[in-house]
Specification:
By secondary structure, the chain is mostly helical. The chain is built from eight helices and no strands.
């Protein structure tokens, strides 16, 4: 009888309602990364004859060893690097927007932000540090449990790891 009188769906109520506060942040972080991926997609990053990643590497004058390791790998495999960067931006941005496997997407976005920050020479006034902190907050709080794909799958008792 309790189920008949329930007006709020199960995946919107209960202990997950505290994550409703994180919904705007989840949507912003997802939009930010998806927009960066779409900009790269429309900019021609996936065409094999363009070498955009090499141009971006040449613009960054980073004196650290982290950048040297990533840049050396990117220079050797230009097309693969461009596909990976664009694909990860699109994938993790879309996953964060729809709230699907938000913990994995949050950790991945935080790692990409910190790598970006480290490779650009540790600029303290740049966007990667706050973006990494927001993504880690979303990952720890499992922000996809409110109005997200994670909540729908959990309500249907689908076993997906890292809920």
């Amino acid at each position: 009888m309790a189920e008949e009188t329930r007006r709020v769906p199960m995946f919107l109520s209960g202990p997950t309602t505290a994550t409703a506060v994180l919904l705007p942040m989840r949507l912003y972080v997802g939009w930010f990364w998806l927009k960066m991926g779409l900009d790269k997609l429309h900019g021609g990053w996936l065409s094999p004859d363009n070498r955009f990643i090499v141009d971006e590497i040449n613009q960054i004058q980073s004196p650290n060893f982290v950048a040297d390791a990533f840049f050396a790998a990117a220079r050797e495999n230009v097309v693969l690097s461009q596909w990976l960067v664009t694909g990860m931006l699109l994938l993790f941005g879309a996953l964060m927007i729809v709230g699907g496997v938000a913990r994995v997407a949050g950790v991945a976005i935080a790692l990409m932000s910190l790598i970006w920050w480290a490779c650009s020479g540790y600029p303290w006034a740049a966007w990667p540090v706050p973006m990494a902190l927001m993504a880690l907050t979303l990952a720890v709080a499992a922000a996809g449990r409110y109005l997200g794909l994670d909540a729908i799958l959990k309500a249907r008792m689908v076993k997906v790891p890292l809920f």
